[in-house]
Design goal:
This protein has about 120 residues and is α/β, with parallel strands linked by helices. It has two helices and eight strands, in the order E-H-E-E-E-E-H-E-E-E. The termini are far apart.
Amino acid sequence: MAINHVFAGIAVADYHSALAWYERLLGRPPDVIVTDNEAMWQITETGWIYVVGDTNRAGKALLTFLVDDLEDHVAKLGERGLETSAIETVPGLYRKAVITDPEGNMISLGEDLSTDA
């Protein structure tokens, strides 16, 4: 079974506030406004995230974005007024920082160290 695309959803209760927060997180407006309570960002060639107003599911998402330079990403988030946790390192495996949106959805930013020579 081949999987060619990934769409990861983030449910929120207050869609309009969340939309503004995710625009700051991702540094740009959404690529697609699907409806009046759903927006999508393409984050890789075949990977998308979407924010959707869904009060019953809000605040329970867990996402991880692997990035090439964790310090740079954390610094850029800080410039946009968003603060992550301290960077945690597991030598030889990974480094990560966590940010939680106002509704409790948790996004980890990770950097893979297992491929470093």
